[in-house]
Amino acid sequence: MPDPRVRPATGEDVDAVADMWVALADEQRAHGSHLLAAANRSQARDLIAQYVHADGVAVATRGSVPVGFVMFHAETGFYETDAARGVVDNIYVRPDLRGDGLGSALLDYAEDALRDRGVDALAVEALAANEAARRLYESRGYEAHRVTLERSAENDTHSKDDA
């Protein structure tokens, strides 16, 4: 049975979700994200509105107030694949409400919606330094699939001869 605290987002939720997206992006800076949170609110709001229109956003609420959100989509692309993949793009719960199962309820909602769309595999990304997010996803059966390695362009610790 779906969690009654989670519902599909509507157009009326777009601004609240955009504000939470800024909070999420700002928090991710502590884990190594390069994304500028407030500077990207307008672009994020536009994307959120598109996701709402495509039934790809759900909100967790306290009463009628959104306090968390999840964004998700079924992947489409240029290449033929042997599995249809659903992607959880963003998940956020207000910090003072974490630990109450809302993050899991949002993830449940997204996974169920993606399964209903016929996906064979589910994917979610987390910054390597975000141990809390990684613990949540790993506890749900997610495993590392692809690893992105990054270094500073100013870092010159290797020589071209090493390559």
Automatic annotation (TrEMBL):
Source domain of life: Archaea
InterPro entries per UniProt: Acyl_CoA_acyltransferase, Bact_Acetyltransf, GNAT_dom
CDD domains for the chain: NAT_SF
Pfam families according to UniProt: Acetyltransf_1
Keyword Ribosomal protein annotated: no
Coiled coil: none
Keywords: Acyltransferase, Transferase
PROSITE patterns referenced in this protein's UniProt entry, alphabetically: GNAT (PS51186)
Domain N-acetyltransferase: 4-163
Entry GO MF terms: acyltransferase activity, transferring groups other than amino-acyl groups
SUPFAM superfamilies in UniProt: Acyl-CoA N-acyltransferases (Nat) (SSF55729)
Stated name of the protein: Acetyltransferase, GNAT family
